[in-house]
Amino acid sequence: MIGTICLSGGQCGQPWHVQTQSVVDAGLLCAGLPPEQAIALIGRVFGLCRVAHMAASARAMGLALPTVLDHARMQDEVLQDHALALLVTLPVHLNLPPQRERLCRVLQDRQTGQALARELTGSNVSLAHMNAQAFEAWLATGRTENSAFLPRLFNRCQSALAAAGAVVSMPELTSQSVQAWLAHERGQGAPVMAYDASIWPDYAHYPVMQALLGTGEVTPFARLVARLLEFLACLEDQAETIFARVNPFRANMERGVGVARAARGMLVHAVQMHNGLVTDYQILSPTFWHMAENGLFRQAVSRLRSGCAKVSLECVLAALNPCVPVTVELTQHA
User: Phi and psi of 191, rounded to 5°?
Assistant: First the structure.
């Protein structure tokens, strides 16, 4: 998705409102182009998750996948997205010093990833496999100023999100969901759009995530922990989970549909061609699904507590992780 999201209201008991602004359908820009020009355009238009977009584009148009679009490059994109959020953006909102030097190490020195993961977490134990008691003990270490950075960060995130609301659960996005949408685009009935296209389904089975589910609803804090697990998996070069669903997902898709794993979840490009030229190009990003009517982002915002602190809102946005900028207007609607 290309554009911006504006959140407004949310004060004095008023609900939050979501609006999209300056939305551009990048697929329309590809109409009339041959495949080679279309994929080049996709590469120029998308700065976020550029490699994932180009990989999905190449697969959709039946082009040979360049070696620069392999899983290692996509993993680097995923790592960069989570690292920037966890080491710089969120700390600033939570009154912690941004970890710019560590960010540079994460992005430039991949050989020391495991050592850096231990330094950041303060633990030699896999967070993903912790039970509820072990994870709470890990969080508790973050209450002191001399503790490792990530438990300090997540201890503050947990406090900021404690009463924020924005709890929402829905079925994960499947190849059948995508096919239903594409059929709808071709005039074969309206599909349901309420699917979770985020990274959450890739991590929901881990013990720590099951412990965080509680009543079965997925909280913003649990979604942030999913980003943490993915960040650590990329950092330690153990990112098999990231791409585990891609091949089964892609195997069930029709010709002309390309799938790739991006930092925000499952990314789909669907292309129709005639006489060697693109006639229709659909880009179904995680944010596309989440911003749809009754989509995950809209439902989460509708359940966001009125009057919640700005820091809580920023943590919710980091958990939902839309692929476009979000502006917030704290106003009271009549």
Answer: -90, 165
| CA distance linking residue 271 with residue 284, whole number of Å | 11
d(CA 228, CA 172): 20
Query: 312-328: per-residue pLDDT in tens?
Result: 999 999 999 999 999 98
Cβ contact 84:321 at 8 Å: no
Distance from C-alpha of 311 to C-alpha of 322, rounded to nearest angstrom: 17
Q: Which DSSP string corresponds to 316-331?
A: HHHHH--SS-EEEE--
Q: Please state, in angstroms and rounded to a whole number, the distance separating the CA atoms of residues 300 and 6.
A: 14
Cα separation of 168 and 301, whole Å?
A: 10
Q: In angstroms, how far is CA 275 from the centroid of its own chain? A: 36
- Distance, in Å, from the CA atom of 33 to the CA atom of 27, rounded to the nearest integer, reads 11
pTM of the model as a whole: 0.93
What's the pLDDT tens digit per position in 112-161? Answer: 899 999 999 999 999 999 999 999 999 999 999 899 999 999 999 999 99
**How many Å apart are CA 316 and CA 68, to the nearest integer?**
34
